[in-house]
Design goal:
CATH architecture of the largest domain: 3-Layer(aba) Sandwich
Radius of gyration: 23 Å
Strand content: 15-25%
Bound molecules: adenosine-5'-diphosphate, alpha-D-glucopyranose
CATH superfamily of the largest domain: Glycogen Phosphorylase B
Shape: globular
Structural class: alpha/beta
Largest sheet: 10 strands, mixed
CATH class of the largest domain: Alpha Beta
Length: 500
């Protein structure tokens, strides 16, 4: 199959969250299975052009009744199978992408021209195929920034080389729908009839994700539980009805993790003789010594007393409401303060996001001796936290898939999670009678529930140590590799292809 991934982010080029990991990891597995995969993303300012090759000639993209011009750069995706490399194309448009930030910057979290930036980019994907005379069987779009791809295909583009092409839209997060003023609609070069047919209309605004959901040939989200949840009023973010309407074409496929990057037996952030990195030696179920070394290194890195017997709870997270940070760090009501005061534990966090939360975390870390936080983004520290912590806290309000809990399980770190979305699909709640399970879970998102569940985990750490150690090994046995999920995507593509 010929597959074009159209995405607003992809590792290692641009990343704000798990979407970037997913797009590249899925592409790599599909290429390893022999499919012809290509990717297209914007050439953001942070992507160094001098390391890329430029395609000859400009790319003309019809938008807003005129044509915008851009350059196209390419490279091969690192880790691609040499016999079947993945070509990545970068759409280079100075006015739209020649600035800091992917969707925004702290002073302007959602760029005012985002609807136009991503309308342009989505249309550019079609023009790129024309320029290359390469037409995919599947156009695979991700979240609202590329949700216009299925709309364009259905309303106008399904001719010529695209006559047999289908579109698949993956929903990574229903909380972001791309809702903007209708004034931006003209930029898509679609008529007002399409505005209503495709269901852009949303209380006199335009909703890009909604139109994408209505137009895609096949739809999925990133875990079975989230697929079910999103069809309910409680989790549907007002699109539950639209999703129920499409339920025959809508499934949940759990994300995998990239085991070449996230693997305690071969983690180059922790141990790489070539780069002279010796933070903690590789470890596995058979020999866990490396994990205890990582715990020591983590305590040092975060300026905590080095103590193998105090449980360390780690967090790596975007600091947004989705992640339950209000209930944890909200001034006066969040439970982090009492958790750290009442329990003998150490809490470490790396994260960035909402300004109020960054400030609150800094202030808490200043007042609590057993809470250390780095506000920012660091791959190295995220690996160290996954490896060196005893527990990993992820009290998400909703979680389409979540990658960190799977990283945790792989590293023998026990997740403490809310029973929702992909967390419910990957973590098995501890049963203290039988010792079975892989983590700790609670249902309602309240400061109290987080407090109680962390308390439960800490109690088990001190009182049920052998059960804890057994759970670590059970977690490490789980298979979260991408192969299984990639097969499900292939099936979805095939079903779509037989429908056109
Ligand atoms: P989401 O995409 O909703 O943020 P996921 O769990 O799917 O949640 O993916 C988050 C990804 O981003 C993980 O790979 C995680 O390690 C990474 N990440 C998030 N915040 C940071 C940070 N501050 N530093 C390093 N990595 C981070
Ligand atoms: C979104 C979701 C997260 C998921 C990721 C990759 O960012 O919040 O749960 O793992 O996309 O699909």
């Amino acid at each position: 199959m010929k597959i074009l991934m159209v995405a607003s982010e992809a590792v290692p080029f641009a990343k704000t969250g798990g979407l970037a990991d997913m797009v590249s990891a899925l592409s790599l597995v599909l290429a390893r299975l022999g499919h012809e995969v290509r990717m297209v993303i914007p050439r953001y300012y942070g992507i160094n052009k001098t390391e890329l090759e430029q395609l000859e000639g400009p790319l003309g993209v019809p938008v807003g009744g005129h044509e915008e011009w851009s350059a196209v750069y390419t490279t091969n995706l690192r880790g691609s199978p040499p016999e079947n490399p993945i070509t990545v194309y970068f759409i280079d448009h100075e006015q739209f992408f020649g600035r800091d930030g992917i969707y925004g910057v702290p002073s302007e979290p959602d760029f005012l021209d985002n609807p136009r930036r991503f309308t342009f980019f989505s249309r550019a994907a079609f023009q790129l195929c024309r320029k290359l005379s390469w037409y995919p069987d599947v156009l695979h779009a991700h979240d609202w920034p590329t949700a216009l791809v299925p709309v364009f295909l259905k309303y106008g583009e399904r001719t010529g080389g695209f006559a047999k092409t289908i579109s698949v839209l993956t929903i990574h997060n229903l909380g972001y729908q791309g809702i903007y003023s209708k004034d931006n609609y003209y930029y898509a070069n679609l008529g007002w009839d399409v505005f209503y047919w495709a269901g852009f209309d949303d209380w006199n605004m335009m909703n890009i994700l909604k139109a994408g959901i209505n137009s895609a040939d096949k739809l999925n989200t990133v875990s079975p539980t989230y697929a079910a949840e999103t069809q309910t009023q409680a989790h549907g973010f007002r699109l539950d009805g639209v999703l129920r309407f499409r339920s025959e074409d809508y499934i949940g496929i759990l994300n995998g993790i990239d085991t070449t990057v996230w693997n305690p037996q071969n983690d180059t952030y922790l141990w790489d003789p070539k780069q002279q990195i010796a933070i903690a030696p590789p470890y596995s179920r058979q020999d866990m010594k490396g994990k205890w070394k990582a715990k020591e290194a983590l305590q040092r890195e975060f300026n905590l007393p080095v103590d193998p017997d105090t449980p360390v709870i780690g967090m790596v997270t975007r600091l947004t409401e989705q992640k339950g940070v209000g209930e944890l760090f909200g001034p006066a009501y969040g439970s982090a303060w009492s958790i750290c005061n009442d329990m003998k534990l150490q809490l470490v966090l790396i994260g960035s996001g909402d300004a109020w939360c960054e400030n609150e975390i800094k202030s808490l870390a200043y007042r609590l001796s057993n809470f250390k936080a780095h506000v920012g983004y660091s791959e190295k520290e995220s690996h160290l936290i996954e490896a060196g912590s005893d527990f990993f806290l992820m009290p998400s309000r909703y979680e389409p898939s979540g990658l960190n809990q799977m990283y945790s399980l792989t590293y023998g770190t026990l997740p403490i999670v809310r029973n929702t979305g992909g967390l419910a699909d990957t973590v098995v709640k501890f049963n203290q009678d039988t010792g079975e399970g892989t983590g700790f879970m609670f249902d309602d998102l309240t400061p109290r529930a987080i407090y109680d569940t962390v308390g439960w985990a800490v109690w088990a750490y001190y009182e049920r140590r052998s059960q804890i150690e057994k759970m670590r090994l059970t977690g490490m046995e789980q298979d979260f590799s991408w192969e299984k999920s990639a097969q499900q995507y292939l099936e979805l593509y095939k079903k779509g292809l037989t429908s056109v």
